[in-house]
């Protein structure tokens, strides 16, 4: 099951990068997704993948809300925090975590530390 999720994730990334859904591009994308090396680490549990994908679905409306907040009430305070990576995360799940944090307009991952931390840049409204 996890192998299919890796292939689907690679295909989605391919189609986002190429922005082309022609037959030739689909064939090339499937070939690239299958020929890329498979992860050597232990795969994440299906439950973790589904939970991460559920968080991304929830983040879509949150991103729109945050975008409108930034338009109508500009945020002037910035700060960088460190967030711990959840234990036993596969590289694919770490990528989805970084994507989830970066997807919303008020946050972006500045750096991923191999020892299990993300540096996250955030903006917020000035406290009155």
Automatic annotation (TrEMBL):
User: Which InterPro entries would you find in this protein's record?
Assistant: Cation_antiport_E
Q: Establish whether keyword Transferase is in the entry.
A: no
Query: Would I find Cell membrane among this entry's keywords?
Result: no
Q: Which residues cross the membrane?
A: 12-37, 49-72
GO MF entries = monoatomic cation transmembrane transporter activity
GO cellular component terms, alphabetically, are: membrane
- Keywords, in A-Z order: Membrane, Transmembrane, Transmembrane helix
The identity of this protein, by name, is Cation:proton antiporter
What is the scientific name of the source organism? Aliterella atlantica CENA595
């Amino acid at each position: 099951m996890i192998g299919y999720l890796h292939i689907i994730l690679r295909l989605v990334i391919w189609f986002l990068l190429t922005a082309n859904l022609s037959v030739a591009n689909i064939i090339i994308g499937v070939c690239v997704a299958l020929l890329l090396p498979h992860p050597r680490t232990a795969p994440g549990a299906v439950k973790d993948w589904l939970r991460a994908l559920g968080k991304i679905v929830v983040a879509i409306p949150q991103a729109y809300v945050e975008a409108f907040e930034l338009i109508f009430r500009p945020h002037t305070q910035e700060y960088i925090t460190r967030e711990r990576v959840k234990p036993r995360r596969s590289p694919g799940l770490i990528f989805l975590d970084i994507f989830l944090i970066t997807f919303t307009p008020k946050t972006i991952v500045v750096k991923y530390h191999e020892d299990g931390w993300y540096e996250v840049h955030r903006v917020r409204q000035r406290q009155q």
